[in-house]
Design brief:
Blueprint (H helix, E strand, L loop, with lengths): L2 H29 L21 E8 L8 E9 L3 E6 L6 H8 L7 E6 L2 E2 L5 H7 E4 L8 E2 H6 L7 H10 L3 H6 L7 E2 L8 H13 L5 E5 L7 H14 L4 E5 L11 E6 L2 E6 L1 H7 L1 H9 L6
Parallel strand pairs: 3-10, 3-11, 6-9, 9-10
Antiparallel strand pairs: 1-2, 1-4, 4-5, 7-8, 11-12
Helix pairs in contact: 5-7, 7-8, 9-10
The structure holds adenosine-5'-triphosphate (ATP).
């Protein structure tokens, strides 16, 4: 008689523990400070005038622990052109993106976008000026078109065609059975990692960003897709500022400037050729990726 009820009791206790953990997490989230006031809703399109970025003595920590970005980090990203952030895992590259997007506030220092302290930008305007393409960007379930205009519903056919040409997706769309109306994602045509990232870039371009933050796909891309992505990023950098987190140095050897991060600080910066000459860590990274002989 006892075995079954005791079994049920143990099961209920386990469920109760899971529920308690969920309640704690919900309390943590509801206790978070709300984002700074926004003027103008998020998701508005920018005006595509390229803007630069400057970090001036920035220090940032996620919690009470030691700073993740320390050493009073300073660097400059020129308006227009391509700047790359490289460095070992955990160096703080993604944190730099989060700070520019104002997901976090630095404990010290100033971040300027377009010469203006980001605390003075209305948040909606700042976010509208930024395009963000995440690593291994997912494709949304829906049509190819829906994937493109998500975030820019007012995009015209001409703008869509231009974004497709810019990202070298025009040929692919032509080959799809129903063109832009073809279903993609798990219920439709599957796209490769490189294609998915180019769709994400096209989606970001339709929002006319003044600064494109691109976290390069970490998934293995075949040689053709890697070359396409490299060409696309170089072309996009002709019309807006591109700051790219590069996981493969081969994609950024042509960048106007490369910033080498290590353990939360900026260690060196320069062109590929300059860094191969002057920086041991960069030369080592380049050697492990067979770009220079060790
Ligand atoms: P990767 O190339 O692996 O993406 P990264 O250079 O982008 O690395 P970050 O993701 O910026 O590095 O992380 C820098 C440090 O901050 C790491 O030690 C990481 O564990 C820590 N970190 C990142 N995000 C958080 C967070 N939300 N809360 C606490 N610590 C974090």
């Amino acid at each position: 008689y006892l075995v079954a009820p005791i079994g049920q009791l143990i099961q209920s206790l386990t469920q109760l523990q899971v529920a308690m953990a969920a309640i704690t997490r919900i309390q943590e989230v509801t206790a978070l400070d709300s984002e700074p006031e926004t003027h103008g809703g998020p998701g508005r399109a920018g005006d595509r005038t390229p803007v630069g970025v400057r970090f001036d003595g920035v220090v940032f920590r996620y919690g009470e622990d030691r700073p993740v970005v320390h050493d009073r980090v300073s660097f400059e990203v020129a308006a227009g052109g391509m700047t790359a952030l490289v460095g070992p895992s955990g160096a703080g590259k993604s944190t730099v993106f989060g700070l520019i997007e104002r997901f976090y506030e630095p404990q010290a220092g100033t971040i300027l976008v377009g010469g203006r302290d980001i605390r003075e930008w209305p948040l909606g305007e700042l976010r509208a000026a930024l395009g963000y393409v995440e690593q291994d960007a997912p494709v949304l379930a829906g049509t190819f078109r829906e994937n493109l205009v998500f975030g820019a519903p007012e995009a015209t056919e001409e703008e869509i065609a231009r974004a497709l040409a810019r990202t070298r997706l025009d040929g692919l769309v032509e080959r799809l059975p129903s063109g832009l109306e073809t279903l993609v994602g798990h219920r439709g045509v599957l796209l490769s990692g490189g294609e998915r990232q180019r769709v994400a870039i096209a989606r970001a371009l339709l929002r006319r960003p003044s600064l494109l933050l691109l976290d390069e796909a970490t998934s293995q891309l075949d040689a053709v897709n890697e070359l396409r992505l490299r060409e696309v990023v170089a072309e996009v950098a002709r019309e807006t500022t591109v700051l790219v987190i590069a996981h493969r140095l081969s994609t950024v050897t042509g960048a106007d400037r490369i910033i080498v991060m290590e353990a939360g600080g900026v260690r060196a910066s320069g062109t590929h050729e300059e860094l191969v000459e002057s920086d041991d860590l960069y030369r080592e990274l380049a050697a492990t990726q067979f770009l220079v002989s060790s």
